[in-house]
């Protein structure tokens, strides 16, 4: 393989790695399988995912603005505009009552940020690439990629702090590779040192929670090991659910969609067919 050919490389991310570790079959259905008719990938739409999408869009829009004017327009107004894109069945909502509940929770989350902007009122750094990535191993054809929610500029050290927004009720497991992977990506796609990492659980917290920085060499080796497993599985076409043919909670929804039991409600900006399951 031409080492510089990014199209032939295996692209890794926190979400694709999590999919593979949870269930290789889910990884296949999300990352590889395409509808034989239109050649689109498939994905399931749920209210929780739609809510997360909207809130991330609202907060991400702030990072392009100078810190002194970020909150001149109420975030609730931005949320109203963004919500239109996922309203109704396209957002996975099964009733107007369900949508109203999720929207009300979303409004509370962005109000929380308006009342306690914390690091979002400080200077931010933007990585130029729309999808930051780098060669994890050029010889082995492995690329690590990931979109970081927010990079806080640490004026004291001229470094950056990683901030990831969470919109669900549960906290990330301590063994999660998400922030360690982001730390690797930030380290390899911009020049400033990473000086901190945080999750902001918007559902129940008014401020971010700091997480200890990872050992980047240990993270690299762990991700490289998983990446090799994924590459081998792709070469062999071997993606088996741990539960066998009966499937599991991770792969079963996508398997149902693949088998024609979902309802198509739209197409994403990345040309993924969006489905809901009744």
The parts where pLDDT drops under 50 for at least 5 residues are none
- How many alpha or pi helices? 8
Strand segment tally: 11
Structural class: alpha/beta
Distance between the termini: 44 Å
The neighbouring-strand order within the major sheet is 3-6-7-8-9
Specify the overall morphology.
globular
Provide the CATH architecture of the largest domain. Answer: Alpha-Beta Complex
Q: What is the CATH C level class of the largest domain, in words?
A: Alpha Beta
When the domains are counted, the total is 2
**Which radius of gyration do the C-alpha atoms yield?**
20 Å
Largest sheet: 5 strands, mixed
Averaged pLDDT, please? 95
User: In percent, how helical is the residue content?
Assistant: 25-40%
CATH topology of the largest domain: Lambda Exonuclease, Chain A
What fraction of residues sit in β-strands?
15-25%
Order of helices and strands: EHHEHHHEEEEEHEEHHEE
Protein described:
- With 278 residues, the protein is an alpha/beta fold.
- The protein has 8 helices and 11 strands.
- The protein starts with 9 loop residues before the first strand and ends with a strand.
- The mean pLDDT is 95.
In short:
The protein is of the alpha/beta class and 278 residues long. The chain has helices at 14-22, 24-31, 47-60, 75-83, 96-115, 178-189, 216-236, 252-258; strands at 10-12, 41-44, 124-125, 133-137, 142-145, 150-154, 159-166, 194-201, 209-211, 263-267, 272-276.
């Amino acid at each position: 393989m031409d080492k510089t050919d990014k199209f032939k490389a295996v692209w890794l991310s926190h979400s694709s790695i999590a999919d593979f570790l949870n269930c290789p079959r889910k990884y296949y259905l999300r990352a590889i399988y395409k509808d034989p008719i239109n050649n689109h990938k498939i994905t399931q739409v749920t209210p929780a995912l739609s809510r997360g999408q909207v809130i991330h869009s609202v907060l991400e829009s702030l990072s392009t603005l100078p810190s002194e004017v970020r909150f001149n327009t109420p975030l609730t107004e931005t949320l109203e505009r963004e919500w239109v894109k996922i309203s109704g069945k396209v957002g996975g909502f099964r009733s107007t009552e369900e949508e109203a509940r999720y929207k009300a929770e979303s409004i509370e989350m962005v109000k929380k940020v308006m009342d306690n902007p914390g690091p979002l009122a400080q200077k931010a750094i933007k990585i130029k690439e729309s999808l930051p990535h780098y060669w994890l191993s050029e010889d082995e054809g492995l690329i690590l990629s990931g979109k970081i929610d927010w990079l806080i500029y640490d004026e004291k050290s001229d470094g950056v702090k990683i901030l990831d927004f969470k919109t669900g009720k549960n906290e990330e497991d301590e063994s999660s590779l998400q922030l360690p992977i982001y730390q690797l990506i930030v380290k390899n796609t911009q020049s400033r040192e990473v000086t901190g990492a945080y999750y902001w659980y918007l559902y129940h917290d008014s401020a971010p929670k700091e997480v200890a920085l990872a050992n980047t060499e240990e993270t690299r080796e762990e991700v490289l090991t998983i990446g090799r497993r994924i590459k081998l599985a792709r070469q062999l076409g071997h993606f088996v659910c741990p539960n066998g043919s009966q499937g599991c909670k991770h792969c079963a929804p996508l398997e149902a969609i693949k088998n024609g039991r979902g309802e198509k409600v739209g197409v994403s900006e990345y040309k993924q067919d969006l489905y809901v399951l009744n």
